[in-house]
Amino acid sequence: MTQIIATIGPATHTPEKIKKIVAAGANFFRLNFSHGSHQWHQETIQLLRKISPSTPIILDTKGPEMRTGDMPSHTSEISVEDGEILTLVLSENLVDIS
C-alpha cells in the first residue's frame, strides 16, 4: 500500500492549501525542523490539528543538534498507547519519577 507524506512549509502553510493536500490523499504531514522557528512549528501543528486532527505528523529533526537523553537504568523502552500524551522535555535536570 502506498502512503503519501506531505511536507508542510511556507508554500503550503495556509488552510486552503492544507485542505487540498488532505483531499489529494496525504496520509502524513511532515515538518522539517531544520527550517522555521519554534513558534512557526507550534502554529503549524495547531493549524494541522484543526484541519485534519487524525492525520499523523512526522517531525524531521535537525539530526545531531537534537538528541534524546538516557533512559533510566531499569528501563530499556517505553510504550505509548493511543490517546496517551508523551511529553518531551528540554532539560538536563530531570528527576526519575518511576
Summarize the structure.
The protein has helices spanning 15-23, 38-51, and strands at residues 5-7, 28-32, 57-60.
What kind of sheet is the major sheet?
A: 3 strands, parallel
> How would you sum up the global shape?
globular
**Widest beta sheet: strand line-up:** 1-2-3
Query: Which stretches are poorly predicted, pLDDT < 50 over at least 5 residues?
Result: none
Q: Radius of gyration, Cα only, in angstroms?
A: 16 Å
Helix content: 10-25%
Number of strands: 3
Can you count the helices?
2
Oligomeric form: single chain
Please report which band the strand proportion falls in: under 5%, 5-15%, 15-25%, 25-35%, 35-45% or over 45%: 5-15%
Order of helices and strands: EHEHE
- The residue-averaged pLDDT reads 83
Compute the separation of the termini in Å. Answer: 40 Å
Going by helix content, strand content and strand pairing, the class is alpha/beta
Write a structural description.
Strands 1-2-3 form a three-stranded parallel sheet, covered by helices on one side. It has a domain at 5-61. 8% of the residues are buried. It is globular, with a radius of gyration of 16 Å. The protein has 98 residues and is an alpha/beta fold. The longest helix has 14 residues, at 38-51. Helix content is 23%, strand content 12%. The protein starts with a strand and ends in a 38-residue tail after the last strand. β2, α2 (38-51) and β3 form a beta-alpha-beta unit.
